[in-house]
Amino acid sequence: xxxxxxxxxxxxxxxxxxxxxxxxxxxxxxxxxxxxxxxxxxxxxxxxxxxxxxxxxxxxxxxxxxxxxxxxxxxxxxxxxxxxxxxxxxxxxxxxxxxxxxxxxxxxxxxxxxxxxxxxxxxxxxxxxxxxxxxxxxxxxxxxxxxxxxxxxxxxxxxxxxxxxxxxxxxxxxxxxxxxxxxxxxxxxxxxxxxxxxxxxxxxxxxxxxxxxxxxxxxxxxxxxxxxxxxxxxxxxxxxxxxxxxxxxxxxx
Length: 253
Known about the structure:
This protein is α/β, with parallel strands linked by helices. The chain has helices spanning 32-42, 63-72, 86-94, 104-108, 111-120, 153-163, 184-193, 207-216, 227-230, 236-245; strands at residues 5-13, 16-21, 24-30, 47-51, 77-80, 99-102, 125-134, 137-142, 147-152, 167-172, 198-201, 220-225. The chain has one domain (5-245): Alpha-Beta Barrel (TIM Barrel), CATH 3.20.20.70. The protein contains 10 helices and 12 strands. It has an 8-stranded parallel β-barrel, surrounded by 6 helices.
């Protein structure tokens, strides 16, 4: 049976890991290099590194910090932020990333997904989608959750998968940082629409939230979280033990 992945997320701003609530009110947490090494040693299955203001500021991702972070980890590393061209894919991969996450860049130019998948393989292209309910519809937001695109999220995700996105990160803006549990309704809608791996992001407040996620939605492949890991509220080893006790397959280190 395929194990469910636990993925800490490093939201990086000005070279530091930060965390907020509902994509706002960012607080400084730690050095991404030190935190990445800690999670790699602590049993995380993968890591996600987001340069969260690159798109909004219209600049490239900080490659020096990324390169040093990649040197510290021995688990798959997904990197995103300011990815607008296949040259950005190439640059980030050469810095040590295993997969590249694209969000606003794909919204601006959907063909980027197709071209990147052709050049680097579907498994390398991760579509990250910031989704919020607007008038009862799941709506795609761009630029770090700052801009409503007007696009319906599930149809957008399906379109990108058809073009070659090999994995989807669903970031629920409604539950981000609130710690009230994952957005099961939103995640279920995405899982029913696509056959590629789906990663749940936004809302984890305790270990039991992951158990609820994987039991309610067996099609979800991974759970991603930030603050509960950063602030020591949930230890990855404890989380995996609880998952195993509840019959959820996990990689125990």
